[in-house]
Structures are given as structure tokens and as C-alpha cells.
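Re-run with default settings, no changes from the original entry. Doing this only to confirm the output is reproducible before filing.
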Amino acid sequence: MKQELIRILCDKSFRYTEEPSFKLVSGRLSRFYVNCKPTILNPRGMYLVGHLMFDAIIDAQPDAVGGLTFGADPIAMATAFASELKQRPIQAFSIRKTKKDHGIAQWVEGDLAQGSQVVVIDDVATTGGSTIKAIERARQAGLNVIRAVVLVDRQEGGLDNIREHVADVRALICRDELIKAIEQTGS
């Protein structure tokens, strides 16, 4: 499954150049472009991500999986769906980027109780900023963050930064695996 997902990511979500030419959120230029949305919103990509993420978190026995909207949402939903198929249900949740100003004005949406054991996920880690924000907001909502998992680690220090907030941090795929796959296929 992982190799098939790497192929789909290389085809739909990853580019790299010799000279830095892709502008990041921080404003700096990078040689690497990663946009996981075309992969995780693709039916086969969603299927693979859901099953691989489930496999990466089930040993922690979480109550739920989720992260900052929109990067984590399709991954969390695919993981929850896969968990039901495997008869080991895990809830999905979503963390808002801005707190809603009506209703009960909460950061986290989902069917979760205070103290729930959760895994925070994200699609890509560069500096880890959005994952860290999700961890902080999950904790503010009374959730116990037991692990963080990203789909693609750009290998630019993000996982180390995330480890300052939760000890158990993993990536399903790293940038070097994507580069290797592209170089092997010559595309």
C-alpha cells in the first residue's frame, strides 16, 4: 500500500527542482512542492491514506484522530472510515483555524469527551507549525494528545519541532522516499 501511495503522491502532489522556485507559507523559496490535497481527495489515495494512517496509530489505542482543518480533515475521515471497516472504530475530529463566534464557540468539532486519547495528524510537515497549533488547541479543549503523525515529512525540521510538544511523532512518508521514487521512474 505504501509504495502505491508514494506513486500517487509523486504523480499528483509532489514536485522538485534544482533551484528553489516554490514559495512556502513562510515566504521563503524551496526546491520542493508538496500539496497532498489532490492525493487525499482522490478515491484511491483516500483509501490508501486511511488504511496506512489506521495502521500507524492503532497500537496507541486512540479514541480519535484529527487535526487542523483542512489538511487533516480528509485524512481523519478516511482513517475513521478504515477503522470501522476493520471493526476497531476510531472517531474523527477537526480543529478550526478560527474559533467560531456563535453557538458554543469551540475549537474542536467531533464526538469527543474531555480526556479523550487522540492522535493529531497533518498532511505535510515543514516547520510543524500547523501540527503544533492543532496539538495546543486539542489540549485546550481537554483532549490528551498521545501521538502526532504526518502524511509527508518535508525533512526540514518539522518533526523535531513537533516533538517538543508530544514525544511520539511519526511520518508515513518522507521527502527522500518521494525523490527516490521519481528518480527511479524518471518522471
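The chain has seven helices and ten strands. The longest strand covers residues 144-153.
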